[in-house]
Each structure stands twice: as C-alpha cells, then as structure tokens.
Write a structure and sequence with these properties.
Elements (H helix, E strand, L loop, with lengths): L17 H7 L1 H12 L28 E9 L4 H4 L4 E6 L12 H4 L5 E3 L1 H13 L5 E4 L5 H13 L6 E5 L5 H7 L5 E4 L6 H8 L4 H16 L3 E2 L5 E10 L8 H12 L4 E5 L22 H13 L4 E2 L7
Parallel strand pairs: 2-4, 4-5, 5-6, 6-8, 8-9, 9-10
Antiparallel strand pairs: 1-2, 1-3, 7-8
Helix pairs in contact: 2-6, 5-6, 10-11
C-alpha cells in the first residue's frame, strides 16, 4: 500500500516532548500528582477508587508498582515505529478491558510478569535506548500512567532522549491523558468497537465506544497528525489502529467515517488483518467470531477507509 507522508521534523532537530517538562520541573509535579491519584484510583473508566498505594487492587490487578511482562526490541510493530533497529517495547500486564478474543491472554487476563520498581523500569528504558531502538513503546499503559511517570524522571535524568509511544486499547481516562499531556510524543490508540452492544459482548465495557471517541480526540488535540523524519520514522503525532473482525462486528465503516470527520483525512491509520480466535472464543460462546477474517472482509475494510476520504494508510495494512 502507498503511504502519504508529511515531513516536518528531521532526526537531528527532534527533541522528545517530555524534555521541556523535565527542565521546567513540571515532570516532577506530574509524578507527585499521579501518585496521589493512586490513593483512590480513577486512572481508567472503571473508576474502581481502590487505594493502590497500599496494594489494593481490582480490575487491573495492579497495585503500587507496574507489572512488566517483557521488554525488548520489537520488529513486529508498524514500519514507521520499528525502523531498522526495532521499537523498544515494554509490555505491561493486566489490561483494563476483558476482550474475549485477546491474543495476549496470559499477559492481559492472567497478569503474567513481575512488579517493577521505578528505577528498574527506568533501567529498561535506558537499556532499550542503548540497544539502538527508535522509541520507547509502552504497551497497555492506561492503568500504570503514574508508575510510568515515576520511572521516566530518573530515566530522563540519566539521558533518555527517545520518543515515547503510548500504545493503548483506548479505555483510558481524562485523568491519565491529562497527566501525559506534553509527555507523550506518539499516541497509538486501537479503536476496537463502534457499537456499545458489541463492546459489552466482546470487551465487557459498553461505554468503550464513547470513551474511545473522547480519548482519541484528546490525543489528537495534544499531538496532531503523525509526523515522520527523513527516514520514515514516526516522531510525533497520532496513529490509529483498527482490528478488522469477522462479520464486521467492529463496525469498520462507521469508525473510518468518524476518523475522517472528526480528526481529518490526514490521520494515519493501520487496518490490522491478524484477527484469529483466541482466549475465550469458542463455537458455543461466540460462534460468530470463531474464525479468521476472509480476504473479502479485509477488502471491504479497505473500501471503507477510502470511501471515508482517508489518505494515509499504513504500509503493513494488508490481508497477508
């Protein structure tokens, strides 16, 4: 697929957004504010109000410290993120959604991984930078924003200078996004479902569609359209992912039309074709999604993208 690319930043001139906040002392204030919010947690739309500082937990099963499943140079992300040296991904355990088709069940549902203190998390970021990764990619970060900020402070003090990617399922809160404003360089939300009934059935969150719309608009307000450098690497902006599902249960045409109408035709979109039955999908419980998508279904998703008037399609958007 061809990709329209806007070049407004060179690699030599780029500075990550968080540097200004660090230099002004605002990053330290955000760390304090974030930790205060853990005392009665409202960091996602579940609004559990548990005292996570005391290791009380609820839906996300995460207390005082973030649980990290793994971290490594990831070569399976979008080309504009992985480049030639990989995207420095840090996978956080325990998602605040309950997608019945989750392809990372052990991480997202069962919480595989270990609690990681701020200095350890900072060391992971610096290790990935030393390996030559092009960015630091926080995967499923919505419930651990204060912990990320707490680790970012020592990481920046020790020389972290890579763009930060906020890679989310998009069940985030206004509180979390306010904490991250001016810190995140690249927002990468996955807009999963348009219809509340489908979101209730497949992700156990009927408010997901409305939340996702509000969240993505705020992300776009903060960082604008995706901007790349002279090498085609993402430096700043919004990249929207959408997983194409069997039978169009995700309502792909409606999502594409909303993106074009609310965010603009230059919004960078990745249509993902890798859906396959996983987690709790079975013929008896969810027979309508107990299969991979067809080539025809993916072509219909592409048609919806172009019919909406969108112009920037990720080069990896193909049925494989």
């Amino acid at each position: 697929m061809s990709v329209s690319r806007s070049l407004a930043i060179t690699s030599a001139s780029f500075q990550p957004a968080y540097l200004k906040l660090w230099e002004s002392g605002e990053l330290s204030r955000r760390v304090k504010l974030g930790l205060e919010k853990l005392t009665a947690c409202t960091l996602c739309p579940r609004n559990c109000h548990v005292h996570r500082i005391e290791d009380d937990t609820k839906v996300c099963k995460t207390g005082r410290y973030a649980v990290v499943s793994s971290y490594f140079a990831h070569f399976g992300e979008e080309r504009c993120l992985r480049g030639s040296r990989g995207s420095g991904t840090i996978f956080f355990s325990s998602c605040n959604l309950r997608c019945v088709f989750c392809q990372n069940y052990g991480i997202s549902w069962q919480g595989e991984g270990r609690a990681t203190k701020p200095d350890e998390l900072a060391e992971m970021m610096l290790h990935l930078q030393d390996k030559g990764c092009h960015n630091i990619n926080f995967v499923t970060p919505a419930h651990v924003v204060p912990q990320i900020l707490e680790a970012l402070l020592p990481a920046v003090e020790r020389g972290l200078r890579l763009p930060l990617v906020y890679n989310t399922s998009t069940y985030d809160s206004a509180d979390s996004l306010a904490l991250m404003n001016g810190i995140v360089d690249i927002y990468m939300p996955d807009f999963k479902f348009w219809d509340p009934d489908q979101a209730r059935r497949y992700a156990k969150a009927p408010d997901y569609p409305d939340t996702a719309r509000q969240v993505i608009k705020e992300m776009h307000r903060q960082v604008g359209p995706l901007v790349m450098d002279e090498h085609g690497l993402a430096m700043r902006g919004l990249l929207v992912r959408h997983l194409v599902m069997p039978g169009s249960v995700a309502c792909t045409p409606e999502i594409m039309q909303w993106i074009a109408r609310e965010l603009g035709a230059e919004t960078y979109v990745n249509l993902m074709a890798q859906y396959h039955p996983a987690c709790r999908v079975s013929e008896t419980e969810y027979p309508e999604i107990d299969r991979c998508i067809t080539g025809s279904e993916f072509r219909q998703a592409l048609d919806a993208f172009y019919a909406a008037g969108l112009a920037r399609l990720d080069s990896d958007s193909s049925p494989g």
